Amino acid sequence: MKKVLNAIFCAGLPKKDIQNANKVNLWGLAWAATLCATIFMIESDWFDHMAYVIIALVINAGAGVAMVLAYKRLLANLDEMEKKIQLDALALSVGITIIVYAGGSILEKANIISYLSPAALIASISLSYVVGLISGRVRYL
After folding, report:
1. DSSP string for residues in 65-77
2. Cα gap 42→24, rounded to integer Å
3. DSSP reduced 3-state for 31
4. 56, 59, 74, 102: which one has the fewest Cβ atoms less than 10 Å from its Cβ?
5. 54 vs 13, 39, 59, 65, 122, CA distance in Å?
6. Helices (H), 44-117
7. pLDDT tens, residue order, the chain (141 aa)
8. CB-based contacts of 8: which residues, under 8 Å, 6+ apart?
9. What is the dihedral sign for C-alpha 51, 57, 61, 64?
10. How far apart are CA 100 and CA 127, in angstroms?
């Protein structure tokens, strides 16, 4: 259990790596918040002009680009072992997401589920990535 907690809280990683990871997390939170706020405002009819939707989209995309650039900076500064852990987590995330979304598409086409939400795709990516990071850090560190 201690190894899992150390993996979750990045014990043993250099301070600079933790700072870079926190920047990625903050930009990810900003991206998710702007996404949720934009969708809520659209569904609540707060936007009475297309220009407001475009402005909200640009803000959301800007936060997303900042998150990607922060992640790229994180990867560039990691040591080889942590890069391997990140790569393995990304591979797991992509693989699981493809399988889950393909299965969901089959269920949707067979009318077993009514709608395959893009939120399910984002959740699948996020959760499988986190599981990959934790398992990699437990295994290698």
Report:
1. HHHHHHHHHHHHH
2. 27
3. helix
4. 102
5. 40, 12, 9, 16, 22
6. 50-77, 80-109
7. 888 888 878 877 899 999 999 999 999 999 999 999 999 999 998 888 899 999 999 999 999 999 999 999 999 999 999 999 999 999 999 999 999 999 999 999 999 998 888 888 899 999 999 999 999 999 987
8. 134
9. positive
10. 12
Kindly state the tokens that stand for 130: 């986190």
Radius of gyration of the chain (CA): 18
Rounded CA separation 34/106 (Å): 31
Q: Tokens 């997390």 correspond to what residue?
A: 25
- Could you state, in order of their start, the residue ranges of all structural domains in the chain? 1-78, 79-141
Long-range contacts of 18-22 (CB under 8 A, 24+ apart): 20/70, 20/73, 20/74, 20/77, 21/74
